Structure formats: C-alpha cells, structure tokens
Amino acid sequence: MPHALRALLPLALGALLGAGPAAHAASGQERAQAAGSSLIGKPAPALTLTTIDGREIDLASLYGRKAVYLKFWATWCVPCREQMPHFERTFEQAGPDLAVIAVDAGFNDSLADVRAYRASVGLRMPIAVDDGRLADALNLRVTPQHVVIGRDGRIAYVGHLVDDRLEAALAAARAAPADAGAGARAPRVPVLAELGVGANVGAASVKREDGTAFPLKDPAGAHSTVVMFLSPWCESYLASSRPERAAACRRAREQSEQLAKDAGRRWIGIASGLWASAEDLAEYRDTQKVSVPLALDGDGTWFRRFGVRDVPEFVVVGPDGRITARIETAGADLRRQLAAR
Fold first, then answer.
1. What's the Rg (C-alpha) of the chain?
2. What is the pLDDT of residues 261-311, one digit of tens each?
C-alpha cells in the first residue's frame, strides 16, 4: 500500500461513519440502500468507461468472468477519502476473480482534481470519471456509494459504509458461479443527447417543491427563463475544502434572489439529488430564505439533460424555448452576464 494511504489508515478505520454533506438527515447507508433496493438481483449495466489514463474498460466483458466492485466517489468527499485505504487494499488483494474500479461521480470535480488526488495519495486502481450515465443506471445518491456485482453479472449489493456487510458481499460475489452469457444480457446504457445552446426545450417542465409543473419555456412566449443549477450543501460542506466553490454558490444564490425580483425574466432553481432529499432542499430554502422556486432533480435527469457537471451553473431559455446561453462561472455581476447573453 502506498505510504500516503498507509498514513491515512488509522483515520479511516476510526471514521468510516464519516459525515456526508447531509449527515443531519438520513444516513449515507440508508440513502444508498434505498437507492439500490430496486437494483439488487438485476443484470448490471453495460457501459464502456474511459480511465483518466485513457484506457477503456468494457464492463460487460467483465460480467460472467469475475466479480466487479465499483465505488462512486469524489475528491471533495470526506468519507470517500477516509475509505480510500480500504479501497486501495481491496484492489491490491483482488486477484483474478475481482475487478476493482474507482468511478469519480463527475460532480464538481475536474480531471485535474482527480489526477492531483491520485498523485497525492498514490492510488493505483483504475479510475474513471462518470459522465452521468453510470450514475443514472446505478441510482447514485451518495458518495461513496459501493456497488458489488457478482460473477453472474447481477447486482448483489449497494451501500455506503465499509463494514461487514460490504466485506460479505464482496466474498459472496467472488464465490458466485460464473455465467458466460452475462455480458451479452447486460442492458446497454444509451447515450443521452445533451441540450446545448440553440436547442429547443419544447414542452419540457420540471416539478417544483409544491408538486406543480414549471414549464421551462414561458407559456406566454413573453419572457426568458433562467435555470439555476445548484446544490443545497455547496455553501456549507465545501466551505473548508473548496472555499472558492462555496463562495461561488453563495454569490449565485444571493444575486439570483435580487435578480428574480425583476419582471423581465422567469426563474427556477434545480437542485442536484446527490446527497439531497426533498427535506434537505426544504431546509436549504428556509435557512437561506430562498424565494426563487426550487425543484429537486432526484435522479439527476435534468443535470444530465443539460450536461451540467458543476454548480452553480445557469442556462437561459429564450421566450421561444431555445437555449440562448450558458453561464458556467457566475461572476460578481451576474446581471451584466445575463444582459450580455
């Protein structure tokens, strides 16, 4: 095991219950198990991952031959870092009957962030950055989220903690009989066409917190709509590890509240469902006194549809339903940025 990871081991063993962004609400294990309950026993998805070194891993080619251990994580995630010594040790001891793959969730993480973290602790397992498709197929709701796939190509376990349940699932997955036809039966994950500038959102609408539909195109065809993509925990959880990102989230919220008072545009905030439930979003709204209408993107559909990988980000939909602008970096004067688009 690399020295940097070995140095972290005492911390990891004592803190595997590490808090995620929404530790005040349902625990990470509860969220992961709830998200994975509908997946257990089903064929794992077929998808080709590209590692940060450019190597392709065809998941379907592994099914039926060996067990597969996928771990969703992020560099900003405290429990992910705490669990990394266990993950690296599992990779080192895997043997020929287990594939161990780290899958960065691709949320508020750049390729440079992932490479820098790998170098800092000496990780050697294959690492890929998800484009949202695998997260969708495997109901990603927390980080870390462990997914164990048996040698029969079926999903055997979904969880959050490093504990006896995970170890038992890994042992059972490796002991399961091989199934030569598992890869061929694996359901293919389709490529989702992202909505870029110039695309028409048509009749698409999002469900607000109160359950009502909010059309992204102004039904009257009179005003533009500003869609603000956000995370309820960005300002607080990232304050120490990513202070610039946390400040950007706060700045975006504060400016949006002011600009939403203008009569010329419609506003809607879409919150990521990663580490966020309806209760978490309601608490964020009340604590921060947010008046902009909010919607929870529980399964990540809208983030994927618009190709959003970071928060805060803004998408402007014109009165005719066509996307006129994307603002990926909200500056100190969002009003000017919007006026220029």
1. 21
2. 988 899 999 999 999 999 999 999 999 999 999 999 999 999 999 999 999
Q: What is the rounded distance in angstroms from the CA atom of residue 126 to the CA atom of residue 159? A: 20
Residue 10: burial class (beta carbons within 10 Å; 0-12, 13-18, 19+): exposed
Q: Answer yes or no: do 9 and 135 share one domain.
A: yes
Residue 103, in any domain of the structure: yes
- CA dist 17 and 162 (Å) reads 8
Domain assignment of residue 275, given as a range: 205-339
Let me know whether 79 and 18 are in one domain: yes
315: left (phi over 0), alpha (psi -120 to 50) or beta: beta
DSSP-derived secondary structure for 38-70:
TTTTSBPPB-EEEBTTS-EEEHHHHTTTSEEEE
Task: Specify the CATH number for the domain of residue 85.
Answer: 3.40.30.10
Which residues fall within 8 angstroms of residue 151, CB to CB, at 6 or more apart? 64, 65, 66, 67, 97, 173, 174, 176, 177, 178, 179, 182
Q: Which of 68, 77, 90 is nearest to 142 (CA)?
A: 77
- Helix runs in 93-154, H state only: 111-121, 133-137
Q: Are 322 and 200 in contact (CB under 8 A)?
A: yes
Q: Are residues 102 and 233 in the same domain?
A: no
Quote the pTM value: 0.90
Tokens 């959880």 -> residue: 237
Q: Does residue 157 belong to any structural domain of this protein?
A: yes
- Among the candidates 152, 185, 218, a domain finishes at 185
Nearest to 123 by CA among 100, 146, 98: 100
Same domain as 210, residue 180: no
One-letter amino acid of 158: V
Domain count, the chain: 2
Report yes or no on 194 lying in a domain: no
pLDDT given for residue 80 in this prediction = 97
